[in-house]
Amino acid sequence: MAGMAAERDDEVVLQALRARLPDRALVTDPDVVAGLSHDDAEWAAVGRPLAVVRARSTADVAAVVQVAVEHGVPVVPRGAGTGLSGGANAVDGGLVLDLSGMDAITRIDPLERLAVVGPGVVNDHLRAAVAAHGLWYPPDPASSPWSTIGGNIATNAGGVCCVKYGVTGDYVLGLEVVTGTGEVVRLGRSTAKGVAGYDLTSLVVGSEGTLAVVTEAILRLRPLPAPARTVAGYFDSVVAAGEATRRVWEAGLVPAALELVDRHCLAAVDAWKNMGLSLEAEVVLLARVDDPGAAGDETAVRVRDCFTAAGATWADVSADADEAEALFAARRLAYPALERLGPVLTEDVCVPIAAVPEMLARIEATGRRHGTTIANIAHIGDGNLHPLLVVDSSDEGARQRAELAFDDIISDALALGGTVTGEHGVGLLKRDGLAREQSPALLAMQRAVKAALDPHGVLNPGKVLPPE
Amino acid sequence: MAGMAAERDDEVVLQALRARLPDRALVTDPDVVAGLSHDDAEWAAVGRPLAVVRARSTADVAAVVQVAVEHGVPVVPRGAGTGLSGGANAVDGGLVLDLSGMDAITRIDPLERLAVVGPGVVNDHLRAAVAAHGLWYPPDPASSPWSTIGGNIATNAGGVCCVKYGVTGDYVLGLEVVTGTGEVVRLGRSTAKGVAGYDLTSLVVGSEGTLAVVTEAILRLRPLPAPARTVAGYFDSVVAAGEATRRVWEAGLVPAALELVDRHCLAAVDAWKNMGLSLEAEVVLLARVDDPGAAGDETAVRVRDCFTAAGATWADVSADADEAEALFAARRLAYPALERLGPVLTEDVCVPIAAVPEMLARIEATGRRHGTTIANIAHIGDGNLHPLLVVDSSDEGARQRAELAFDDIISDALALGGTVTGEHGVGLLKRDGLAREQSPALLAMQRAVKAALDPHGVLNPGKVLPPE
């Protein structure tokens, strides 16, 4: 009987949505719904939603949230579904709100150095569009060929450029959102500066759709940077690579990227693409230097000298774009190369720069202890590590061991003064970690904010905040 | 009788504070209390507080807020009192919480590029201390010789460097705060990146002591920049200066400062220091270029060429530090030079770059219409204008006309797509403007956040949010 009542209720919700939405916005085909019910997080729980709404306008989004409030139905916003923490995973009986169709670039303004975009605009599409005006949108998560600006905002996405140019939130001037009560509200501003009222823009950035649904963003842009040089260094230990990073920092240098790729990644890339890197290095460091002119050339040489002084077995500067691309390809191909070996559970801890060598050593020990292959790529200049746990999908025991390793990595990051998530967000996978990282009083403040802005609890419930 | 009851209640509050605070922390001397009851905002209402507490520790601050919650007494945090919006003005019967004594620089870490400081550390003191380590704390409000980091955080202070290096909030990684319930909570992080939970750090930044009291800050630092060149341009109209700014922006150049000083300021400076500037220009533009090496030299020449192409009557580049200092002196001396003529009511609107010439023209017309002298200094590269309304203090009519002019400037800024406050904060003076700038729904969201984090309403009540 309960099941029949639920079915009747579901039909009422679907009817209410159909009455408010354009034709074909509401999707109930089980295969389509299932395909849009999860992001890329391995092993995060996925609910069975009632339906998907493909929103095409702010009015569509407002209608969905209003119906959700009226009927007490959860709404899970999603973009391209490239998230790695389960933040876009569907909730049982809820609605998936697909924003990928709201992909208009409404304005690119070279004078104000800003763009106004829908949440569904793909990161790389935006970058290409503004480049045509001599402008640059820096945030460059590895998902940039597919991930949307709305998703980038939801997770406050980072990337390779952050070490010099900051993260997504540093480029969000203002937002149009649909609130937890279904109202359309503009937050922030379109001026270069502004301190009128509380910074709700920054509060919504990184809140993973739990405080509001972003329907438009005003993004800050920069002029395109000067062409970059790439500095590569091969090291025979992670400790030496950590020492190289320390030297670059202490020399007062600011590379536009500083990336680490370890031997597990190099071996996987070699096994796939036969680049031969794993024969030459245990660890590769890649720096990008985009200071203009001779000063940039000098900075690149100084970065190389820091690598050498830290014991690099080889280090050199390249100003050739093709050569630089080949060097960064190892970084870019690491993840897909590892995925060829089995499902990859991606970690995202961030620790102080000084703690990076110790953290990498502990990750190595954790892998040995649990018999789990753990490869490492890292935005080492930010102390943001991505241990990649590769698992044999046919072996349930391997999966359980990987989950233990995942928890141990979190414990070690916290013990070293780090955070459980540098750029991927909390979603479902890091809720326990959040509860371990933050004080009960801080969690209570966040619950109070959530209750204040989503009083009906319909916006992506169960994400970010750990259960009480 | 009510008065006597109030006095008895006051004595109970003072007793409770004495029991919790170190000797001499509680100050009731009327002259001292009056002197610490207001900031530098002209004409903002000042209440008569019960007492001042000179906090020396986080425990002192927690004790004050706990007593305040218990007895329903407002708490107004303050640093140096250099605010320009009345945000630190005392509330009748409340406590002034003076944080200027919490002035320890606990840590300067060149490797992590961060500093840990008390809220009472003076901006320039911090800058000097980190410079000794080759590091730089960029935010540079004009008040930097006196204003405290706590006050800078409370207002999300800007300054001259923002156009390239951002505002205070861009340099706040984490905070220790005392909450509205008197708990000590750490927000944010000390790692370079981190997205664990909601960004309450950014929410507290700029909230003017209404959501929490900052007791410690973890600040991001940069390496010291390269020595800068100064580019000066003389123009015969604000429209020409606006055109010069447009050309610099459209050329993709990023100066580290771009400041405008108008003829009223030049005349006041000349009257005081006899620099002769007002004979040569209606408007002066000053740019600072700190790109390193030859590229920076080239950028400076290109800025100069933009000035010339826009009709500058004179423009030149100087790499001489003394000459640059002399040029920026006119900018720095404008405010005190004007204050010699009478009380100065400082505006702080921010408009799109494209709207700056029109906004300056409207300000000129507003001054004529109300018979008020309005001088202009502007962070023109950010569109952040500081019309300075100079009033004869002996003339009540002049003051009333200046208040009308103040309101008209706000109206014009809003009509041109701007905001009522670029960097000074809302305090008391911009509450009406905030209500005009923001939608009722947005104001309601902010009230909900205030109620969630300050449920007893003791933290700087009446500031920022307009009365309902």
Structure description:
The structure is a homodimer of 468-residue chains. The mean pLDDT of chain A is 95. The first copy, chain A, has 468 residues and is of the alpha+beta class. In chain A, a hairpin with a 4-residue loop joins β17 (373-379) and β18 (384-390). A 7-stranded antiparallel sheet of chain A has the order 15-12-14-13-17-18-16, with helices on both faces. The first copy, chain A, is built from 16 helices and 18 strands.
Q: What structural keywords apply?
A:
Uridine Diphospho-n-acetylenolpyruvylglucosamine Reductase, domain 2, 5-stranded antiparallel sheet, 18 strands, FAD (chains A, B), Uridine Diphospho-n-acetylenolpyruvylglucosamine Reductase, domain 3, FAD binding (chains A, B), about 20% strand, homodimer, Alpha-Beta Plaits, about 475 residues, 7-stranded antiparallel sheet, alpha+beta, 4 domains, FAD-bd_PCMH-like_sf (chains A, B)
* Envelope shape of chain A: globular
Largest sheet of chain A: 7 strands, antiparallel
Mean pLDDT of chain A: 95
CATH topology of the largest domain in chain A: Uridine Diphospho-n-acetylenolpyruvylglucosamine Reductase, domain 3
Question: What percentage of amino acids of chain A are in beta strands?
Answer: 15-25%
Chain oligomer state:
homodimer
Rg estimate of chain A, integer Å: 23 Å
